[in-house]
Amino acid sequence: MSENWQDKYTAIAFSRRGRVLTIQLNNPDNLNAVGKQMHDELGRVFSDAAADEESDIIVLTGAGRAFSAGGDIAHMQAVVDKPELFLHEAEIAKRIIFSLLDLEKPIIAKINGHAVGLGATLALMCDVTFMSRKAKIGDPHVGIGLVAGDGGAVIWPHLIGFSRAKEFLMTGDLLDASRAADIGLVNHAVDGDKLDEAVDAFCDRLAAGSTQAIRWTKTIVNIELKRIAAMVMQAGMAYEAVTAYSADHAAAVAAFREKRPPVFKK
Q1: What span, in angstroms and rounded, lies between the C-alpha atoms of 112 and 209?
Q2: Per-residue pLDDT tens digits for 173-201
Q3: Least CB-packed of 78, 89, 136, 187 within 10 Å?
Q4: 115 secondary structure, DSSP code
Q5: Are the beta carbons of 131 and 111 closer than 8 angstroms?
Q6: DSSP conformational letter for 8
Q7: How far apart are CA 94 and CA 230, in angstroms?
Q8: Strands, E assignment, the chain
Q9: pLDDT, tens digit, for every residue of 220-234?
């Protein structure tokens, strides 16, 4: 693979520490909200990381004070104005999840700040999660009139069970790091000033282990999750598409842009 494959990216940044490759969502002025450019890049970055010959371990994090605030509202408005764009969004959403689950290298989420919506899904799809106590996590798709179809319905029940997952996905409530760790949504809640140290230490521990044994143990654990994702993502994106074309979603996007609470009709 070309040593300069990272040069293809503008919304994602990269750094290396030995055999550890860090993938950083890089739109800090907008809290790493996912617009079209970042979404498209996320659709290929995990495949590129899998083929990267210089790394054995991946860290996923965000630039600045957030991990990711989820979907970019301006981009949502563009899709509301031109609904056919959602077909592209749906295909990329599936590619993101499937490429994350296909990645054999261990991938560690360093949740440095709030992880919301797709941001939460990206973090939770990682193999091990370290979350700053300053951060919150949640999937408030319903708050903008959308089905949580882009991965939340896959991973939340897998981590915390169906009843809790349905509660948090139907309300969109955000959880602080301590609560998220207590219920098993994330692995570790860490003081913000200790987050880098904790993630580095864990990566070093993996790096000192048997690369193939660790990689393929992860791979077999993911078999069942990939089976679930293959079924749920198809239905999830279809249902999300229905709501993406709805009056409720359009009204919610307008309300968000106008900084007022949405009023849902149905």
Answers
A1: 26
A2: 999 999 999 999 999 999 999 999 999 99
A3: 78
A4: E
A5: yes
A6: G
A7: 9
A8: 12-17, 20-25, 57-62, 66-68, 107-111, 114-116, 128-132, 136-138, 175-176, 188-190
A9: 999 999 999 999 999
Distance CA 90, CA 232 (A): 13
Question: 212: which residues sit within 8 A by CB, 6+ positions away?
Answer: none
- Tens digits of residue pLDDT in 58-96: 999 999 999 999 999 999 999 999 989 999 999 999 999
Two structure tokens written together for 27: 């739109």
Q: Where are the beta strands (DSSP E) in 32-142?
A: 57-62, 66-68, 107-111, 114-116, 128-132, 136-138
- 160 to each of 25, 62, 148, 168, 265, how far by Cα in Å? 26, 24, 16, 10, 31
Q: Can you tell me whether residue 136 is helix, strand or coil?
A: strand
What does the pLDDT look like over 206-258, one tens digit per residue?
999 999 999 999 999 999 999 999 999 999 999 999 999 999 999 999 999 99
Cα atoms in the Cβ-side hemisphere of radius 13 Å centred on 238: 5
32-59 residues labelled b (16+ CB within 10 A) or e (exposed) = bbbbbebbbbbbbbbebbbebeebbbbb
C-alpha torsion sign, points 135, 174, 87, 126:
positive
Helix, strand or coil, per DSSP, at residue 167 = helix
- Rounded to two decimals, the pTM is 0.97
Containing H/E element for 255?
helix 247-257
For helices 152-160 and 211-244, give the axis angle rounded to 10 degrees: 130
CA distances from 238 to 95, 100, 225, 233 (A): 15, 20, 20, 8
